[in-house]
TrEMBL record:
Protein name: 3-dehydrosphinganine reductase
Record's subcellular location: Endoplasmic reticulum
Organism: Crucibulum laeve
GO terms, biological process: 3-keto-sphinganine metabolic process; sphingolipid biosynthetic process
Native organism taxonomy: Eukaryota, Fungi, Dikarya, Basidiomycota, Agaricomycotina
Any one GO molecular function term: 3-dehydrosphinganine reductase activity
Amino acid sequence: MFGFSKSWNPRGLHAYVTGGSTGLGLALAKILVLKGAHVSIVARNQEKLDKAIEELELLRVDAAQKVLAYSFSLTSAETSTTALEAVCAPFDGKAPDAVFACAGASRPAFFVEMEAQHLEQGMRDGYWVQAWTAWAAAKMMAKQQKKGGKIVLVSSTLGYMSFLGWASYSPAKHALRGLADTLQSELMLYGISVHIYFPPTMHTPGYEEENKTKPQIVKEIEDADEGLTAEQAAKALYRGVESGQAHITGDLITSLFRASTRGASPKNNWILDGVYDAIAYVATPIWRSSVDKKVVSHRMEHHDYLAKKGFFT
Ligand SMILES: NC(=O)C1=CN([C@@H]2O[C@H](COP(=O)(O)OP(=O)(O)OC[C@H]3O[C@@H](n4cnc5c(N)ncnc54)[C@H](OP(=O)(O)O)[C@@H]3O)[C@@H](O)[C@H]2O)C=CC1
Ligand SMILES: CCCCCCCCCCCCCCCC(=O)[C@@H](N)CO
């Protein structure tokens, strides 16, 4: 916790990874299996879970390691609690040592074209899908008086900043930061450490999916962000947890936004975070005005697009 304590080692521990069947969650589950942890993954689609287990089984380092998958949708308090209990059953009902809430989905679009249900789904698939797991896990760990538990949430660069197209998603990812900062403080009462990861673009199945509804202008703005593979992103997440960082970033752009929006969130490095903050002080206004110009010059094209789609009639 103070930076000089021994780094976290998951060997022999039980790690629960939500969204562990594809993308970031699967890449993280692979790292954890390779490190000798017992790993449980939860997602909805059984076929994808089966395929993930096949891949994870190949990486086991110990015959006694448990590598298990369960199908649940984690968008309600009830299902998230039931999922957690199912995951703990092979461990005599004992709470996991670490919970990684990676599950999530996004559906970028223009705000005025979104239906009410899209905005509600945004909070469900961005915020609640992780918040309920954190809630169920915190309760279980506190009740069992478990020491040294970890809860890790997954936000996004869009949990620190935002731009057009992300109205149903960015608020949910900002909300996760509020939850993580609250729990980072409150769960100290129970010796539980809380971490939150802010990945940039990751080239995952989820990214392929969101690009189906993503407006072209949003894609163009995101071109400035090269993105990470799921493996690179998972490694950064793992390293951040290993070294006890409250806010974890694994790329320069997000580190700049982290340092410049930190508020009272714990710093990672007193010197480097100050340097990032100073760079961001100059760089963010430049980026901001270039994006504003791009959006304003898109007005006519956007008007024609809406007209063609019958928006005004
Ligand atoms: N890819 C990107 O560019 C970025 C992604 N993120 C965030 O990172 C996390 C991982 O993203 P990524 O790896 O790209 O996503 P993927 O779509 O590749 O994987 C998402 C995982 O979550 C599961 N999942 C989704 N919804 C639910 C649900 N309701 N209940 C249970 N499981 C669910 C999926 O399985 P199934 O569908 O079968 O349930 C899958 O295992 C997400 O929280 C995402 O918002 C953050 C920044 C950038
Ligand atoms: C400081 C000045 C530098 C400015 C450069 C900024 C470049 C834009 C960064 C866009 C990042 C968007 C990530 C979206 C990730 C995400 O959450 C979605 N893919 C949903 O899954």
